[in-house]
Design brief:
Number of helices of chain A: 7
Number of strands of chain A: 16
Bound molecules: flavin-adenine dinucleotide
Order of helices and strands of chain B: HHEEEEEEEEHH
CATH superfamily of the largest domain in chain A: Nucleotide-binding domain of ferredoxin-NADP reductase (FNR) module
CATH superfamily of chain B: Jelly Rolls
Oligomer: heterodimer
Helix content of chain B: 25-40%
CATH architecture of the largest domain in chain A: 3-Layer(aba) Sandwich
CATH class of chain B: Mainly Beta
CATH topology of the largest domain in chain A: Rossmann fold
Largest sheet of chain B: 4 strands, antiparallel
Shape of chain A: globular
Largest sheet of chain A: 7 strands, mixed
Strand content of chain A: 25-35%
Number of domains of chain B: 1
CATH architecture of chain B: Sandwich
Distance between the termini of chain B: 49 Å
Number of helices of chain B: 4
CATH class of the largest domain in chain A: Alpha Beta
Helix content of chain A: 10-25%
Radius of gyration of chain B: 17 Å
Radius of gyration of chain A: 18 Å
Chain lengths: 271, 157
């Protein structure tokens, strides 16, 4: 699969190190249908290719949004793209979040840092069909108040889509009137029906491990807790083995896995 | 308004306590309320109470010269706040400031300590529950210092 050129329609700086690119194919080419939780391989010309989740609205396949944090060479080059710039795109890849399995159930979403990106696509899908789900709650942890992503959308979902939203930061000064502390502490306080809940988690692996443990201790079944595992990859089609996670290919079998399938592998430091 | 015994029984901290133990707890409890900005406790003051939060949000803060007030964590509905009442020298190590209107049950530490000394069964029950709260806080604090979402973790997606 070769990269297809996409054009940057819009670029938004979300925080000091995180930006969103909205991409479209040129001319009358069809949009890119995708499921929330899927990712694309973005190719920055001259720099390389990286997997980035789709953070936009699945109902808008004509506008493909990617929210990226600058951590190294390729993401830095991507961050320099401006409106009209070109990026190569292969995808969508991966399996996405278990929407069907969540029908009629409480949906507890736990996001940490840039992990909110693939969960934003999920929130678009959930809120577009709000009546299909019972309680929807998002517990979101960020480093500081300045790192909180998608503030306006979170507010909109809170006020007009009946989504319970709890944001917490690791550190803050007195100007922040919100919560400070780790997401697990907020999860402990959240009221939902564990027997009828689905948990969906994306963030740093340590956070995901503790968030999953908290959901388990609240009584959520291990096959109802889903994690997006985002260790790095190359080919994205299950050939090269770069993203092997124990016996699993993240690109082909994931990136979203039920907790019970990744529990032991998650405890292994480096693979 | 629900009485204190009822309120306490509903809270995880006291759930499952034998009636006799619950009555002893109620004997040391009172309803309190704080306006936004009001302090529940201040660093260095005698830690003669702890709080079971029923409503609102409280910031646990420390003052650092040049940096102002730094919030270490916030506690909210359902949380148990404060364990200095149990550990000598029984002084608060941080400030606790209400961010929003806060309603809580305050438990008198000296009263509880005396009852625990006199009744070790009650003491052990309470100690298990307070230890549980402390363990949760310790785990949270450890995760917080890891700076998981920061640049240095190498673990951030
Ligand atoms: C399925 C999937 C979805 C992803 N979605 C997003 C997304 O929506 N937004 C986003 O910002 N990032 C996402 N990532 C991570 C992103 O792919 C990497 O940050 C990127 O590949 C880094 O490339 P680089 O050349 O800029 O940095 P590099 O020079 O490759 O790496 C710089 C530093 O970042 C660390 N690093 C690189 N990749 C990862 C990773 N996957 N996990 C943890 N640490 C890493 C390296 O160890 C190194 O310390 C996703 C990864 C996967 C596998």
């Amino acid at each position: 699969m070769l990269p297809v050129p996409y054009r940057v329609q819009r670029r938004r700086q979300e925080s000091h190190d995180t930006f969103t690119l909205e991409l479209s194919r040129s001319g009358s080419a069809p949009g890119l249908e995708f499921a929330p939780g899927q990712f694309n391989m973005l190719y920055a010309f001259g720099a390389g290719e990286v997997p980035i989740s789709i953070s936009g609205d699945p109902a808008r396949p004509d506008v493909i949004a990617h929210t990226t944090r600058v951590v190294g060479g390729v993401t830095r080059v991507l961050s320099r793209l401006r409106r009209g710039g070109t990026v190569g795109l292969r995808g969508p890849f991966g399996n996405g979040w278990p929407l069907e399995q969540s029908r009629g159930r409480d949906v507890v979403i736990v996001a940490g840092g840039i992990g909110l990106a693939p969960l934003r696509a999920l929130l678009y899908a959930l809120t577009a069909n709000r009546g299909r789900f019972a309680r929807i709650a998002l517990v979101y942890g960020a480093r500081t108040p300045e790192d909180v992503l998608f503030g306006a959308e979170l507010e909109r979902w809170r006020t007009s889509a009946d989504v319970e939203i709890a944001v917490t930061v690791d550190r803050a000064t007195e100007s922040w009137a919100g919560r400070v502390g780790v997401v697990t502490a907020l999860l402990r306080r959240l009221s939902f029906d564990p027997a009828n809940a689905v948990g969906m988690i994306c963030g740093p692996e340590v956070m995901m491990r503790y968030a999953a443990a908290e959901l388990l201790s609240r009584g959520v079944a291990p096959d109802s807790i889903f994690l997006s595992i985002e260790r790095n990859m190359k080919c994205a089609v299950g050939h090269c083995g770069h993203c092997l996670f124990g016996p699993l290919f993240i690109c082909r079998d994931g990136p979203v896995f039920p907790y019970e399938r990744v529990e032991t592998t998650l405890r292994v430091a480096e693979l | 308004m629900k009485d204190l015994e009822h309120l306490l029984r509903e809270h995880p901290f006291a759930s499952g306590l034998p009636s006799a133990a619950l009555s002893l707890l109620v004997g040391c409890a009172s309803n309190v309320q704080y306006e936004p900005g009001e302090y529940l406790f201040r660093t260095g003051e005698p830690a003669d109470r702890f709080f079971i939060l029923r409503h609102g949000e409280v910031a646990v803060e420390v003052y650092a010269a040049g940096r102002g007030r730094i919030t270490i964590e916030t506690a909210g509905e359902g949380d148990v706040l404060g364990w200095s009442w149990l550990v000598p020298p029984h002084r608060w190590l941080f400030d606790g400031r209400a961010i929003t209107l806060t309603r809580a049950i305050a438990l008198d530490g000296a009263c509880l300590r005396a009852k625990c000394e006199a009744n070790h069964d009650l003491g052990y029950e309470l100690l298990k529950r307070v230890t549980h709260v402390m363990a949760e806080r310790l785990t949270s604090a450890r995760l917080q210092v890891l700076d998981l979402y920061g640049d240095g973790s190498g673990d951030v997606v």
